[in-house]
Amino acid sequence: MAQSRNVIITGGSSGLGLALAEALLRRGDHVLLLARDAAKLAAAITGLREKNPHAQVDFIASDVSGAQIEADIARAVQTLGGLDLLINSAGILREGYFEHLTEDDFRRTLDINFFGAVRVIRAALPWLRQSRGKIINISSVAGLTGVFGYAAYCSSKYALLGFSETLRAELKPQGIRVQVVCPPEFDSPMVDALDQGRTPENQAHALTIPKLDLPTVVNAIVAGLDRAQFIIIPGVQTRLMTFGLQHFPGISRWVSDLRIRASYRGPTHQPKPVQKSGSGA
User: Fold this and answer.
1) Contact partners, residue 240, CB within 8 Å, separation at least 6
2) Which domain holds residue 136?
3) Catalytic pick from 153, 252, 276, 279?
């Protein structure tokens, strides 16, 4: 078994963050979860300990968009006794026609999905230098291509991908590895809630790549931890589609336009954007 690591996971109370915690605990890692809702975190910890009574798992209720995050990261590292791996999984989603998304929708989405990762990494960096540790940022296929209805969300995930690429270059000489995960939509509370009210165009366009099951995404990330690849793309079909996006962008856009045209209803269809929070893509 690999040597035990000290791990912080943001957005760890549900969805991908919680599933990653369970997988890493099975490997013998010491995991600390960060999320905003203390009650959900406590319930998550209870569930993890029921599945693995010997699990070393702790939590701190903290908001990655808050001014206290630097102090909370320091407290988390003290609780763990060090830091070897940081996973930025906290995220929110705003889905809706651009005409209905407010400037606040854009600001709030960027504040959590992008600036939240910036704040957490800046706070954790001194300890990651000491351990020559790893950073994993959870972006999305929506960070590789525009998706109908995801103007705010894609903006945040594109920003996170560019930030991760820059950090990879800057931190590699310091012995810190940076990786970024770009999954399609997958089974999670955030996506389940989105399905209750997303625009028909988003439904058609986003699911050009079929929704993945959560274990497939988790297994790809855990496997990627032991490899040097910068971008981790879960799912064979996802990798094929992203290959097409990169090498045949004109064809990819043509296919997207066909799917959108077939389902188009326009901004008079949905009066308000769908707003959901969670972890992961």
Assistant:
1) none
2) 6-279
3) 153
Q: What is the pLDDT, as a whole number, of residue 191?
A: 80
157 is an active site residue: yes
- Asked whether residue 1 is domain-assigned, the answer is no
Domain at 15, CATH number:
3.40.50.720
Q: Using the predicted structure, report yes or no on whether residue 276 has a pLDDT greater than 60.
A: no
pLDDT at position 270 is 52
- Provide the whole-model pTM: 0.92
- Is 27 within the bounds of a domain? yes
137: exposed, middle or buried (Cβ count in 10 Å: 0-12, 13-18, 19+) = buried
List 13, 14, 89, 139, catalytic entry:
139
How much of the chain is helix, strand and coil, in % rounded to 5? 55, 15, 30
pLDDT, tens digit, 9 for 90 and up, residues 153-209: 999 999 999 999 999 999 999 999 999 999 999 987 778 778 778 899 999 898 888
Catalytic residue among 157, 164, 276, 279: 157
Q: How many domains does the chain have?
A: 1
